[in-house]
Amino acid sequence: EAGTYNVTATVNGCTGPAGTVAVTVAPPPAAPTAGSNSPLCEGDDLNLTAGAVAGATYSWTGPNGFTSTQQNPTIAGVTSAETGTYSVSAIVGGCQGPAGSVAVTVNPIPTTPVASSNSPICIGQTINLSTTAVAGATYSWTGPNGFTSAQQNPSITNATTAESGTYSLTITVNGCTSAAGTVDVTVNNAPPSPTVSSNSPVC
How many CA atoms lie within 13 A of 147 on its CB side? Predict the structure, then answer.
């Protein structure tokens, strides 16, 4: 209870003057609003934020043994071990309030795709690019002569030698993009018409 408290001492039946002390009971600070830049990909930096509380210091806890006394801490190069719930409380005048929390998701980087083709081919034929299907993935092909495609298995009809070269493929799952897989494609020119001769006329 807040208020003024008095105390007296009595020795041999004699009571001395009272000493007094004022006691103040402060309410705990409110829970800070917790935020983050989740969802993330493995290797990204996790940025945690706590709403400002006047005069406060902060106490963060989270997965993988995480603790911090910063208002807005950063965890560099996160892995899937940093997925989970992060909590932060404010401390004012020695009183720690309730915690605010935020859920953080760290998604894995997809495995580098294997790109393949029907190379080598002849000029005028169709280049068939392909890769194995990955659940939930989007595909991004790039290649010579300004080629791009978002198909899993794109084709280039009536190919010319300008389509010869290296084709690259990345896949994206849950916003995380893989390293590029590559395949070399060769489009061969048709040979020139042969010169035909004989020993004609003969007997």
Answer: 23
Instruction: Give me the numbers of helices (H) and strands (E) for the chain, helices first please.
Output: 0, 24
Do the beta carbons of residue 131 and residue 111 sit within 8 Å? no
Nearest to 169 by CA among 198, 135, 128, 129: 129
Written as six digits, the tokens of 114 are 């294997």
Please name the helix (run of DSSP H) or strand (run of DSSP E) that holds residue 143, with its range, or none.
strand 138-143
- For residue 24, CA distances in Å to 3, 18, 29, 89 come to 7, 19, 15, 22
CA-based torsion, 149, 152, 158, 161: positive or negative: positive
Q: How far apart are CA 91 and CA 98, in angstroms?
A: 9
pLDDT digits (tens, 9 = 90+) for 164-181: 999 999 999 999 999 999
Query: What kind and span of H or E run contains 172?
Result: strand 165-173
Is the CB of residue 60 less than 8 Å from the CB of residue 73? yes
CA 102, CA 114: separation in Å to the nearest integer?
Answer: 37
Give the model's pLDDT for residue 142.
98
Task: Summarize pLDDT for 185-196 with one digit per residue, the tens.
Answer: 999 998 887 888
Judge whether 86 and 60 are in contact, CB under 8 Å: yes
